[in-house]
């Protein structure tokens, strides 16, 4: 009806405005990759750790692994507005809607210019600084969804594998990922590549979801159900089943220091439940098995 010109009278237009306002409020949720809430959560996730070692975001090259195909540029553009020098978005999937992804950058800029505290809280930055930091971008073109409005030297999308990144050795100051590492089939190879592209003294900030992902569409699926299944497949229902705490050893083995490891979701695992798991999970400590979601900050030595 909208596409056929439904809003052709004042009462219909008023109703349309009310619908638009209601949708804007209802869609301000974490799972909406273009929402204020999502940007605020991602900023908080990364900066809550990083600020203890880097109180300001200035001149860094930041890599977003598994950036997604819906809004691949958004989180990196936010960090560019705060002072980062360059952002490289990486995913295996093509961008779904290029015009929409580009327009999202203009929307994010508007959010930061109108109400920066709604996204970055008490991080001190003025509107003038935000505009200076993205002066090489054409906001007018971004608003129309024109990719030529992006400064390609500062922000780019690369469709490539974590096992063969096109970054040069030590190019990244910070590598971030949001529920990505649990989907990698050969985790150690991925960590080796992260060690290659991260500069000495650089960081990695990773959120890891170690739950059986079937629970997101099947409420009856236990968070650790997939640990009961014997298989030769590397991935089980899309996940590699590496327990979050095991990533500590993996990163340490390849030249990283663990700055922080913070479980943010835990469940109780009884000895009876653990006995249902296959090895090596059956021999793991109960508290380690109970750590489902974790945040991990690492530093390259």
The class by helix and strand makeup works out as: alpha/beta
What is the CA–CA distance across the termini? 59 Å
Largest sheet: 7 strands, mixed
What is the overall silhouette? globular
The SSE order reads HHEHEHHHHEEHEHEHHE
Query: Can you list the strand order of the major beta sheet?
Result: 3-2-1-4-5-7-6
Count of helical stretches: 11
Taken as a percent bin, the fraction of beta residues is 15-25%
Q: Report low-confidence residues grouped into runs of 5 or more.
A: none
Compute the gyration radius: what is it? 21 Å
Average predicted local confidence, pLDDT: 94
Specify the helix fraction band: 25-40%
DSSP strand tally? 7
Put the structure in a nutshell.
With 301 residues, this protein is an alpha/beta fold. It has helices at 10-26, 36-50, 74-81, 98-114, 117-120, 127-133, 139-143, 187-197, 246-253, 271-274, 286-289; strands spanning 61-65, 86-91, 155-159, 172-178, 198-209, 256-266, 291-300.
Walkthrough of the structure:
With 301 residues, the chain is an alpha/beta fold. It is built from 11 helices and 7 strands. It has a 7-stranded mixed sheet. Helix 3 links the parallel strand 1 and strand 2. It is globular, with a radius of gyration of 21 Å. It starts with 9 loop residues before the first helix and ends with a strand. The model has no long low-confidence stretch (mean pLDDT 94).
SSE blueprint and pairings:
Elements: H1 10-26, H2 36-50, E1 61-65, H3 74-81, E2 86-91, H4 98-114, H5 117-120, H6 127-133, H7 139-143, E3 155-159, E4 172-178, H8 187-197, E5 198-209, H9 246-253, E6 256-266, H10 271-274, H11 286-289, E7 291-300
Parallel strand pairs: 1-2, 1-4, 2-3, 4-5
Antiparallel strand pairs: 5-7, 6-7
């Amino acid at each position: 009806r909208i596409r056929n010109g439904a809003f052709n009278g004042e009462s219909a237009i008023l109703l349309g405005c009310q619908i638009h306002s209601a949708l804007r409020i209802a869609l301000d949720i974490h799972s909406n990759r273009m929402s204020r809430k999502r940007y605020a959560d991602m900023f908080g996730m990364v900066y809550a750790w990083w600020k203890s070692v880097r109180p300001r975001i200035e001149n860094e090259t930041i890599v977003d692994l598994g950036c997604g195909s819906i809004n691949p540029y958004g989180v990196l553009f936010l960090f560019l507005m705060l002072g980062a020098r360059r952002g490289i978005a990486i995913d295996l999937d093509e961008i779904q809607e290029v015009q929409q992804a580009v327009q999202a950058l203009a929307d994010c800029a508007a959010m930061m210019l109108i109400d920066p505290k709604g996204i970055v809280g008490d991080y001190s930055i003025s509107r003038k600084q935000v505009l200076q930091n993205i002066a090489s971008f054409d906001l007018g073109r971004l608003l129309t969804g024109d990719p030529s409005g992006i400064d390609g030297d500062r922000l780019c999308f690369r469709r490539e594998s974590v096992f063969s990144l096109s970054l040069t050795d030590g190019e990244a100051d910070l590598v971030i990922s949001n529920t990505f590492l649990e989907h990698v089939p050969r985790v150690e190879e991925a960590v080796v590549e992260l060690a290659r592209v991260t500069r000495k003294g650089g960081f990695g900030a990773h959120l890891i979801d170690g739950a059986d992902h079937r629970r997101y569409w099947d409420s009856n699926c236990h968070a650790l159900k997939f640990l009961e299944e014997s298989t030769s497949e590397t991935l089980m229902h899309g996940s590699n089943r590496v327990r979050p705490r095991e990533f500590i050893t993996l990163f340490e083995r390849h030249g990283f220091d663990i700055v922080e490891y913070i479980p943010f979701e835990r469940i109780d695992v009884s000895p009876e439940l653990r006995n249902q798991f296959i090895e090596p999970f059956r021999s793991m400590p109960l508290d380690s098995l109970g750590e489902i979601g974790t945040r991990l900050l690492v530093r390259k030595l």
